[in-house]
Amino acid sequence: MAETYFSLVIWTDETDMNQFKDCLESIDEQEYREFELYILDNNPSNAIEVTIKEFFPDIVDKVHYRRLKKKNGMSYAYNIGAHFAEGDYLVYLGQHDRLSGNTLSSLNEKLDSLENKECIIYSDHDELIGLDRKNPHFKPDFNKELFLQMNYIGDFVCISKSLYRRLGEFNEKAVTSTLYEFILRAVFKNEPIEHVPSLLYHKRTSEKALNKEERKAANFYCKEHMALAISYLRQNGVICEGSIDNSLKKWHLDYDNSTFRRFSGDYMFLRDENVRLYTRNNVKKMYSYLCQPDVAVVGARFIDRGLTLDNIGYIYDTDGAWYPAFHGQSVFRGGYDGIGNMPRDVSVVDCGCCLIDAKVYRMLRGFDTRLTGQDAMFDFCLRARKRGYRIIVLPQVIARWKNRVVETPTDNHQLIMEKHGEYLEKGDLFYNKNLPIGMENYVLPGTQS
Protein backbone atom coordinates (compact mmCIF):
# COMPACT_ATOMS: atom_id res chain seq x y z
CA MET A 1 0.00 0.00 0.00
CA ALA A 2 1.31 3.43 -0.96
CA GLU A 3 1.91 5.87 1.90
CA THR A 4 0.33 9.28 1.52
CA TYR A 5 1.57 12.36 3.36
CA PHE A 6 -1.31 14.37 4.82
CA SER A 7 -1.35 18.02 5.87
CA LEU A 8 -3.95 18.60 8.59
CA VAL A 9 -5.11 22.22 8.65
CA ILE A 10 -6.91 23.82 11.61
CA TRP A 11 -8.02 27.43 11.94
CA THR A 12 -8.30 28.57 15.57
CA ASP A 13 -10.47 31.52 16.56
CA GLU A 14 -12.34 32.15 19.85
CA THR A 15 -10.95 28.80 20.93
CA ASP A 16 -12.17 26.75 23.88
CA MET A 17 -8.80 25.45 25.11
CA ASN A 18 -10.12 22.27 26.73
CA GLN A 19 -11.90 21.25 23.54
CA PHE A 20 -8.87 22.21 21.45
CA LYS A 21 -6.66 19.98 23.60
CA ASP A 22 -9.14 17.17 22.97
CA CYS A 23 -8.79 17.77 19.23
CA LEU A 24 -4.98 17.67 19.46
CA GLU A 25 -5.13 14.49 21.53
CA SER A 26 -7.16 12.76 18.78
CA ILE A 27 -4.53 13.80 16.23
CA ASP A 28 -1.71 12.50 18.42
CA GLU A 29 -3.54 9.14 18.67
CA GLN A 30 -3.54 8.52 14.91
CA GLU A 31 -2.39 5.04 13.91
CA TYR A 32 -1.07 6.47 10.65
CA ARG A 33 1.92 8.76 11.31
CA GLU A 34 2.67 10.25 7.88
CA PHE A 35 1.21 13.68 8.54
CA GLU A 36 1.95 17.25 9.54
CA LEU A 37 -0.33 19.70 11.34
CA TYR A 38 -0.75 23.35 10.40
CA ILE A 39 -2.42 25.58 12.97
CA LEU A 40 -3.50 29.03 11.78
CA ASP A 41 -4.21 31.10 14.89
CA ASN A 42 -6.51 34.12 15.08
CA ASN A 43 -6.75 34.21 18.89
CA PRO A 44 -5.45 37.32 20.70
CA SER A 45 -3.30 35.35 23.18
CA ASN A 46 -0.51 32.82 22.67
CA ALA A 47 -2.35 30.07 24.58
CA ILE A 48 -2.51 27.81 21.50
CA GLU A 49 1.25 27.89 20.98
CA VAL A 50 1.97 27.31 24.66
CA THR A 51 -0.50 24.39 24.79
CA ILE A 52 1.16 22.60 21.88
CA LYS A 53 4.62 22.80 23.43
CA GLU A 54 3.60 22.07 27.01
CA PHE A 55 1.00 19.33 26.68
CA PHE A 56 1.84 17.58 23.41
CA PRO A 57 5.63 17.18 23.11
CA ASP A 58 5.20 13.98 21.07
CA ILE A 59 3.80 15.84 18.09
CA VAL A 60 5.73 19.12 18.32
CA ASP A 61 7.94 18.02 15.44
CA LYS A 62 4.83 17.57 13.29
CA VAL A 63 3.22 20.90 14.18
CA HIS A 64 3.64 24.17 12.29
CA TYR A 65 2.19 27.13 14.14
CA ARG A 66 1.44 30.43 12.45
CA ARG A 67 -0.17 33.45 14.06
CA LEU A 68 -2.35 35.27 11.53
CA LYS A 69 -1.95 39.03 11.50
CA LYS A 70 -5.22 39.56 9.64
CA LYS A 71 -8.63 38.42 10.86
CA ASN A 72 -9.86 37.67 7.35
CA GLY A 73 -11.78 34.52 8.24
CA MET A 74 -11.66 30.82 7.55
CA SER A 75 -11.08 30.92 3.79
CA TYR A 76 -8.04 33.18 4.17
CA ALA A 77 -6.63 30.94 6.90
CA TYR A 78 -7.22 27.78 4.87
CA ASN A 79 -5.44 29.30 1.87
CA ILE A 80 -2.44 30.19 4.05
CA GLY A 81 -2.35 26.63 5.30
CA ALA A 82 -2.57 25.20 1.79
CA HIS A 83 0.23 27.50 0.60
CA PHE A 84 2.72 26.24 3.19
CA ALA A 85 1.52 22.63 3.44
CA GLU A 86 3.94 20.00 2.18
CA GLY A 87 1.47 17.11 2.12
CA ASP A 88 -0.06 15.41 -0.90
CA TYR A 89 -3.53 15.93 0.60
CA LEU A 90 -5.05 18.74 2.64
CA VAL A 91 -7.26 17.59 5.51
CA TYR A 92 -9.48 20.29 7.01
CA LEU A 93 -11.11 19.88 10.42
CA GLY A 94 -12.68 22.01 13.13
CA GLN A 95 -10.70 23.24 16.15
CA HIS A 96 -13.05 21.62 18.71
CA ASP A 97 -13.75 18.32 16.91
CA ARG A 98 -12.12 14.89 17.15
CA LEU A 99 -10.78 12.32 14.72
CA SER A 100 -11.08 8.58 15.18
CA GLY A 101 -7.79 6.79 15.71
CA ASN A 102 -8.02 5.21 12.24
CA THR A 103 -9.04 8.35 10.34
CA LEU A 104 -5.82 8.92 8.40
CA SER A 105 -5.22 5.21 7.82
CA SER A 106 -8.76 4.93 6.39
CA LEU A 107 -8.15 7.89 4.08
CA ASN A 108 -4.90 6.29 2.94
CA GLU A 109 -6.67 2.99 2.23
CA LYS A 110 -9.36 4.79 0.26
CA LEU A 111 -6.80 6.63 -1.85
CA ASP A 112 -4.94 3.40 -2.49
CA SER A 113 -8.12 1.89 -3.96
CA LEU A 114 -8.79 4.78 -6.38
CA GLU A 115 -7.63 5.09 -9.95
CA ASN A 116 -8.09 8.85 -10.00
CA LYS A 117 -6.47 10.14 -6.84
CA GLU A 118 -7.03 13.82 -7.69
CA CYS A 119 -10.25 13.99 -5.74
CA ILE A 120 -12.15 15.21 -2.70
CA ILE A 121 -12.97 12.72 0.08
CA TYR A 122 -15.50 12.98 2.89
CA SER A 123 -16.64 10.50 5.54
CA ASP A 124 -19.53 9.74 7.87
CA HIS A 125 -19.56 11.56 11.20
CA ASP A 126 -21.31 11.58 14.54
CA GLU A 127 -21.85 14.28 17.15
CA LEU A 128 -19.72 14.80 20.24
CA ILE A 129 -21.83 16.08 23.14
CA GLY A 130 -19.69 16.39 26.24
CA LEU A 131 -17.98 13.01 26.48
CA ASP A 132 -20.70 11.15 24.58
CA ARG A 133 -20.82 10.31 20.90
CA LYS A 134 -24.37 10.45 19.54
CA ASN A 135 -26.43 10.82 16.36
CA PRO A 136 -24.37 8.99 13.70
CA HIS A 137 -24.76 10.54 10.27
CA PHE A 138 -24.36 7.68 7.78
CA LYS A 139 -24.20 9.43 4.42
CA PRO A 140 -24.68 8.34 0.80
CA ASP A 141 -21.94 8.45 -1.79
CA PHE A 142 -21.96 11.85 -3.44
CA ASN A 143 -25.57 12.95 -3.92
CA LYS A 144 -25.66 16.11 -6.04
CA GLU A 145 -29.32 17.08 -5.57
CA LEU A 146 -29.14 16.58 -1.81
CA PHE A 147 -25.91 18.58 -1.61
CA LEU A 148 -27.47 21.46 -3.55
CA GLN A 149 -30.09 21.81 -0.81
CA MET A 150 -28.24 20.68 2.31
CA ASN A 151 -24.56 20.60 3.25
CA TYR A 152 -24.68 16.98 4.32
CA ILE A 153 -20.91 16.54 3.77
CA GLY A 154 -20.05 18.82 6.68
CA ASP A 155 -16.78 20.23 8.01
CA PHE A 156 -14.33 17.36 7.50
CA VAL A 157 -12.90 17.15 4.00
CA CYS A 158 -9.72 15.74 2.43
CA ILE A 159 -8.64 17.51 -0.78
CA SER A 160 -5.93 16.52 -3.22
CA LYS A 161 -3.24 19.24 -3.24
CA SER A 162 -2.99 19.01 -7.03
CA LEU A 163 -6.77 19.41 -7.35
CA TYR A 164 -6.62 22.45 -5.06
CA ARG A 165 -3.99 24.04 -7.30
CA ARG A 166 -5.99 23.26 -10.43
CA LEU A 167 -9.34 24.57 -9.14
CA GLY A 168 -7.84 27.60 -7.40
CA GLU A 169 -7.87 28.94 -3.87
CA PHE A 170 -10.79 29.01 -1.46
CA ASN A 171 -13.11 31.93 -2.08
CA GLU A 172 -12.21 34.48 0.60
CA LYS A 173 -15.61 36.17 0.23
CA ALA A 174 -17.17 33.05 1.75
CA VAL A 175 -17.71 33.49 5.49
CA THR A 176 -19.22 30.15 6.58
CA SER A 177 -19.23 28.22 3.29
CA THR A 178 -15.51 27.83 2.57
CA LEU A 179 -15.51 24.09 1.92
CA TYR A 180 -19.04 24.02 0.47
CA GLU A 181 -18.12 26.54 -2.23
CA PHE A 182 -14.97 24.63 -3.14
CA ILE A 183 -16.86 21.34 -3.42
CA LEU A 184 -19.54 23.01 -5.58
CA ARG A 185 -16.79 24.27 -7.85
CA ALA A 186 -15.46 20.73 -8.16
CA VAL A 187 -18.93 19.28 -8.77
CA PHE A 188 -19.69 21.58 -11.69
CA LYS A 189 -16.31 20.79 -13.22
CA ASN A 190 -17.07 17.06 -12.90
CA GLU A 191 -14.24 16.35 -10.49
CA PRO A 192 -14.53 13.13 -8.44
CA ILE A 193 -16.07 13.32 -4.94
CA GLU A 194 -15.35 10.17 -2.94
CA HIS A 195 -16.89 8.87 0.28
CA VAL A 196 -15.60 6.67 3.11
CA PRO A 197 -18.65 5.07 4.81
CA SER A 198 -17.18 5.06 8.30
CA LEU A 199 -17.46 7.32 11.36
CA LEU A 200 -14.05 8.94 11.05
CA TYR A 201 -15.03 12.36 12.41
CA HIS A 202 -16.71 13.48 15.62
CA LYS A 203 -18.34 16.91 15.39
CA ARG A 204 -18.55 18.93 18.61
CA THR A 205 -22.09 20.13 19.18
CA SER A 206 -24.69 20.82 21.88
CA GLU A 207 -28.16 19.55 22.72
CA LYS A 208 -29.27 22.99 23.93
CA ALA A 209 -31.81 24.94 21.89
CA LEU A 210 -30.33 27.76 19.82
CA ASN A 211 -30.42 31.18 21.40
CA LYS A 212 -31.21 34.33 19.42
CA GLU A 213 -27.63 34.94 18.28
CA GLU A 214 -27.11 31.29 17.34
CA ARG A 215 -30.34 31.29 15.30
CA LYS A 216 -29.17 34.41 13.52
CA ALA A 217 -25.83 32.73 12.72
CA ALA A 218 -27.57 29.54 11.53
CA ASN A 219 -29.86 31.59 9.29
CA PHE A 220 -26.85 33.37 7.77
CA TYR A 221 -25.13 30.01 7.25
CA CYS A 222 -28.11 28.69 5.26
CA LYS A 223 -28.51 31.89 3.26
CA GLU A 224 -24.87 31.91 2.22
CA HIS A 225 -24.86 28.25 1.24
CA MET A 226 -28.15 28.56 -0.63
CA ALA A 227 -26.93 31.64 -2.52
CA LEU A 228 -23.86 29.74 -3.69
CA ALA A 229 -25.92 26.76 -4.87
CA ILE A 230 -28.24 29.08 -6.82
CA SER A 231 -25.29 30.96 -8.30
CA TYR A 232 -23.56 27.81 -9.57
CA LEU A 233 -26.80 26.46 -11.00
CA ARG A 234 -27.47 29.71 -12.83
CA GLN A 235 -23.95 29.74 -14.23
CA ASN A 236 -24.82 26.36 -15.71
CA GLY A 237 -28.11 27.52 -17.22
CA VAL A 238 -30.45 26.28 -14.47
CA ILE A 239 -32.67 29.03 -13.07
CA CYS A 240 -34.02 28.69 -9.53
CA GLU A 241 -34.95 30.56 -6.38
CA GLY A 242 -34.63 29.42 -2.78
CA SER A 243 -36.00 29.60 0.75
CA ILE A 244 -34.59 28.66 4.15
CA ASP A 245 -36.08 25.67 5.97
CA ASN A 246 -37.47 26.25 9.47
CA SER A 247 -34.90 23.81 10.85
CA LEU A 248 -32.09 26.22 9.83
CA LYS A 249 -30.13 23.18 8.66
CA LYS A 250 -31.16 23.09 5.00
CA TRP A 251 -32.85 25.11 2.30
CA HIS A 252 -35.25 24.51 -0.56
CA LEU A 253 -34.65 25.29 -4.23
CA ASP A 254 -37.56 26.11 -6.51
CA TYR A 255 -36.49 25.39 -10.08
CA ASP A 256 -37.90 27.47 -12.90
CA ASN A 257 -40.66 25.70 -14.85
CA SER A 258 -41.61 28.56 -17.20
CA THR A 259 -40.66 26.52 -20.27
CA PHE A 260 -43.14 23.79 -19.34
CA ARG A 261 -45.68 22.98 -22.06
CA ARG A 262 -48.40 20.43 -21.52
CA PHE A 263 -48.25 17.53 -24.00
CA SER A 264 -44.76 18.62 -25.08
CA GLY A 265 -42.46 16.18 -26.83
CA ASP A 266 -39.63 16.98 -24.39
CA TYR A 267 -40.82 14.57 -21.75
CA MET A 268 -42.86 11.42 -21.13
CA PHE A 269 -45.26 11.33 -18.17
CA LEU A 270 -45.91 7.79 -17.00
CA ARG A 271 -48.76 7.11 -14.61
CA ASP A 272 -50.30 3.73 -13.94
CA GLU A 273 -54.11 3.65 -14.06
CA ASN A 274 -54.11 2.29 -10.50
CA VAL A 275 -52.18 5.27 -9.13
CA ARG A 276 -53.93 8.22 -7.53
CA LEU A 277 -52.16 11.59 -7.20
CA TYR A 278 -52.80 13.75 -4.13
CA THR A 279 -50.94 16.88 -5.18
CA ARG A 280 -51.54 19.43 -7.93
CA ASN A 281 -49.38 20.52 -10.89
CA ASN A 282 -47.41 17.29 -10.56
CA VAL A 283 -46.01 17.16 -14.07
CA LYS A 284 -44.97 20.81 -13.84
CA LYS A 285 -43.20 20.20 -10.52
CA MET A 286 -41.36 17.20 -11.93
CA TYR A 287 -40.49 19.05 -15.12
CA SER A 288 -38.70 21.79 -13.19
CA TYR A 289 -36.19 19.15 -12.00
CA LEU A 290 -36.07 17.38 -15.35
CA CYS A 291 -34.86 20.66 -16.91
CA GLN A 292 -31.42 20.04 -15.45
CA PRO A 293 -29.34 18.65 -18.33
CA ASP A 294 -28.03 15.66 -16.37
CA VAL A 295 -31.42 14.43 -15.09
CA ALA A 296 -33.14 11.52 -16.88
CA VAL A 297 -36.03 10.55 -14.58
CA VAL A 298 -37.99 12.26 -11.80
CA GLY A 299 -40.20 10.14 -9.53
CA ALA A 300 -42.76 10.67 -6.78
CA ARG A 301 -43.25 9.81 -3.12
CA PHE A 302 -45.78 7.00 -2.60
CA ILE A 303 -47.84 6.81 0.57
CA ASP A 304 -49.64 3.79 1.99
CA ARG A 305 -52.68 3.29 4.16
CA GLY A 306 -52.51 4.24 7.82
CA LEU A 307 -50.49 7.43 7.27
CA THR A 308 -47.34 5.49 6.44
CA LEU A 309 -44.98 5.59 3.51
CA ASP A 310 -44.92 3.05 0.73
CA ASN A 311 -41.67 4.32 -0.78
CA ILE A 312 -39.59 7.39 -1.52
CA GLY A 313 -37.62 5.76 -4.28
CA TYR A 314 -35.99 2.34 -4.10
CA ILE A 315 -32.69 0.92 -2.86
CA TYR A 316 -31.06 -2.34 -3.92
CA ASP A 317 -28.59 -4.84 -2.50
CA THR A 318 -25.58 -6.52 -4.08
CA ASP A 319 -27.76 -9.46 -5.20
CA GLY A 320 -29.95 -7.16 -7.30
CA ALA A 321 -33.01 -7.29 -5.01
CA TRP A 322 -34.77 -3.93 -4.68
CA TYR A 323 -36.62 -2.55 -1.66
CA PRO A 324 -38.92 0.46 -1.16
CA ALA A 325 -37.02 3.20 0.70
CA PHE A 326 -38.53 4.44 4.01
CA HIS A 327 -41.26 1.79 3.74
CA GLY A 328 -43.63 1.74 6.73
CA GLN A 329 -42.34 4.96 8.28
CA SER A 330 -44.63 7.82 9.29
CA VAL A 331 -45.59 10.35 6.62
CA PHE A 332 -45.17 13.10 9.23
CA ARG A 333 -41.48 12.49 9.85
CA GLY A 334 -38.54 13.44 7.69
CA GLY A 335 -36.98 10.01 7.87
CA TYR A 336 -33.34 9.27 8.62
CA ASP A 337 -31.29 12.49 8.84
CA GLY A 338 -34.30 14.39 7.51
CA ILE A 339 -33.61 13.36 3.92
CA GLY A 340 -37.01 11.72 3.40
CA ASN A 341 -38.53 15.13 2.69
CA MET A 342 -35.64 16.31 0.52
CA PRO A 343 -35.40 16.05 -3.27
CA ARG A 344 -32.38 13.83 -3.84
CA ASP A 345 -30.62 11.51 -6.23
CA VAL A 346 -31.69 7.87 -5.97
CA SER A 347 -30.92 4.73 -7.93
CA VAL A 348 -34.52 3.85 -8.83
CA VAL A 349 -37.98 5.46 -8.62
CA ASP A 350 -41.44 3.89 -8.57
CA CYS A 351 -42.76 2.90 -11.98
CA GLY A 352 -46.28 4.00 -11.00
CA CYS A 353 -45.63 7.71 -11.55
CA CYS A 354 -42.61 9.40 -13.07
CA LEU A 355 -41.41 11.86 -15.70
CA ILE A 356 -38.76 10.79 -18.21
CA ASP A 357 -36.64 12.92 -20.49
CA ALA A 358 -37.77 11.97 -24.00
CA LYS A 359 -34.34 12.25 -25.58
CA VAL A 360 -32.84 9.96 -22.93
CA TYR A 361 -35.68 7.50 -23.47
CA ARG A 362 -34.92 7.42 -27.19
CA MET A 363 -31.18 7.15 -26.65
CA LEU A 364 -31.69 4.13 -24.35
CA ARG A 365 -34.28 2.70 -26.76
CA GLY A 366 -36.96 2.70 -24.12
CA PHE A 367 -37.78 -0.03 -21.64
CA ASP A 368 -36.54 -3.58 -22.08
CA THR A 369 -39.69 -5.39 -23.26
CA ARG A 370 -38.47 -8.63 -21.73
CA LEU A 371 -38.96 -7.10 -18.27
CA THR A 372 -42.18 -6.10 -16.54
CA GLY A 373 -43.36 -3.67 -13.85
CA GLN A 374 -40.82 -2.31 -11.38
CA ASP A 375 -38.10 -4.53 -12.86
CA ALA A 376 -38.41 -2.69 -16.17
CA MET A 377 -38.03 0.65 -14.37
CA PHE A 378 -35.11 -0.74 -12.36
CA ASP A 379 -33.31 -1.70 -15.56
CA PHE A 380 -34.07 1.63 -17.25
CA CYS A 381 -32.78 3.68 -14.31
CA LEU A 382 -29.61 1.60 -14.10
CA ARG A 383 -28.93 2.11 -17.80
CA ALA A 384 -29.48 5.85 -17.44
CA ARG A 385 -27.15 6.00 -14.44
CA LYS A 386 -24.42 4.18 -16.37
CA ARG A 387 -24.65 6.87 -19.04
CA GLY A 388 -24.03 9.56 -16.42
CA TYR A 389 -27.63 10.69 -15.90
CA ARG A 390 -29.27 11.29 -12.54
CA ILE A 391 -32.51 9.86 -11.16
CA ILE A 392 -34.33 12.17 -8.74
CA VAL A 393 -37.17 11.45 -6.34
CA LEU A 394 -39.38 14.45 -5.55
CA PRO A 395 -41.24 14.02 -2.22
CA GLN A 396 -43.41 17.06 -2.99
CA VAL A 397 -45.31 14.94 -5.53
CA ILE A 398 -47.45 12.49 -3.54
CA ALA A 399 -49.10 9.40 -5.01
CA ARG A 400 -50.69 6.15 -3.84
CA TRP A 401 -51.36 2.81 -5.44
CA LYS A 402 -55.05 1.85 -5.31
CA ASN A 403 -54.40 -1.79 -6.04
CA ARG A 404 -50.97 -3.19 -6.61
CA VAL A 405 -49.56 -6.66 -7.07
CA VAL A 406 -45.76 -6.69 -6.80
CA GLU A 407 -44.22 -9.50 -8.79
CA THR A 408 -40.57 -10.17 -9.47
CA PRO A 409 -40.43 -13.22 -11.72
CA THR A 410 -37.26 -15.28 -11.56
CA ASP A 411 -36.64 -14.65 -15.26
CA ASN A 412 -36.68 -10.90 -14.64
CA HIS A 413 -34.09 -11.14 -11.90
CA GLN A 414 -31.83 -13.39 -13.93
CA LEU A 415 -31.94 -11.00 -16.88
CA ILE A 416 -31.16 -7.98 -14.68
CA MET A 417 -28.18 -9.79 -13.15
CA GLU A 418 -26.93 -10.73 -16.62
CA LYS A 419 -27.14 -7.10 -17.72
CA HIS A 420 -26.01 -5.33 -14.55
CA GLY A 421 -24.46 -7.92 -12.21
CA GLU A 422 -21.02 -6.31 -12.09
CA TYR A 423 -22.53 -2.87 -11.45
CA LEU A 424 -24.90 -4.18 -8.76
CA GLU A 425 -22.07 -5.90 -6.87
CA LYS A 426 -20.83 -2.45 -5.79
CA GLY A 427 -24.06 -1.90 -3.88
CA ASP A 428 -26.42 1.06 -3.98
CA LEU A 429 -24.25 4.18 -4.04
CA PHE A 430 -27.03 6.27 -2.50
CA TYR A 431 -27.51 3.99 0.49
CA ASN A 432 -24.94 3.73 3.27
CA LYS A 433 -23.73 0.19 3.94
CA ASN A 434 -23.84 0.82 7.72
CA LEU A 435 -27.65 1.00 7.63
CA PRO A 436 -29.81 -2.15 7.45
CA ILE A 437 -31.04 -3.14 4.01
CA GLY A 438 -34.32 -4.86 3.29
CA MET A 439 -37.93 -3.84 3.88
CA GLU A 440 -36.78 -1.99 7.01
CA ASN A 441 -34.25 0.59 5.91
CA TYR A 442 -33.10 4.14 6.66
CA VAL A 443 -33.23 3.38 10.39
CA LEU A 444 -30.42 2.90 12.88
CA PRO A 445 -30.07 -0.71 14.01
CA GLY A 446 -31.77 -1.23 17.36
CA THR A 447 -33.94 1.88 17.11
CA GLN A 448 -37.52 2.44 16.04
CA SER A 449 -38.21 4.25 12.79
Topology of this protein?
Blueprint: E1 6-12, H1 17-28, E2 35-41, H2 47-55, E3 63-67, H3 74-84, E4 89-92, E5 98-99, H4 103-113, E6 120-129, E7 132-137, H5 144-149, E8 157-160, H6 161-167, H7 178-187, E9 193-204, H8 212-235, E10 240-244, E11 251-255, E12 267-271, E13 275-277, H9 282-290, E14 295-304, E15 308-311, E16 314-316, E17 322-324, E18 344-346, E19 353-357, H10 358-363, H11 373-386, E20 390-401, H12 410-424
Parallel strand pairs: 1-2, 1-4, 2-3, 6-9, 14-20
Antiparallel strand pairs: 4-8, 5-9, 6-7, 6-8, 10-11, 12-19, 13-20, 14-15, 14-19, 16-17, 18-20
Helix pairs in contact: 1-2, 7-8
Radius of gyration: 23 Å
Q: Mind describing the biggest β-sheet? A: 9 strands, mixed
Q: Determine the strand fraction and express it as a percent band.
A: 25-35%
The CATH architecture category of the largest domain equals Alpha-Beta Complex
CATH topology heading of the largest domain: Spore Coat Polysaccharide Biosynthesis Protein SpsA, Chain A
Number of helices: 12
Question: Can you tell me the overall shape?
Answer: elongated
Quickly count the domains: 3
Class inferred from helices and paired strands:
alpha+beta
- What's the count of strands? 20
Low-confidence stretches: none
Range of helix content? 25-40%
CATH class of the largest domain: Alpha Beta
Average pLDDT score? 94
Q: CATH homologous superfamily name of the largest domain? A: Spore Coat Polysaccharide Biosynthesis Protein SpsA, Chain A
End-to-end separation: 41 Å
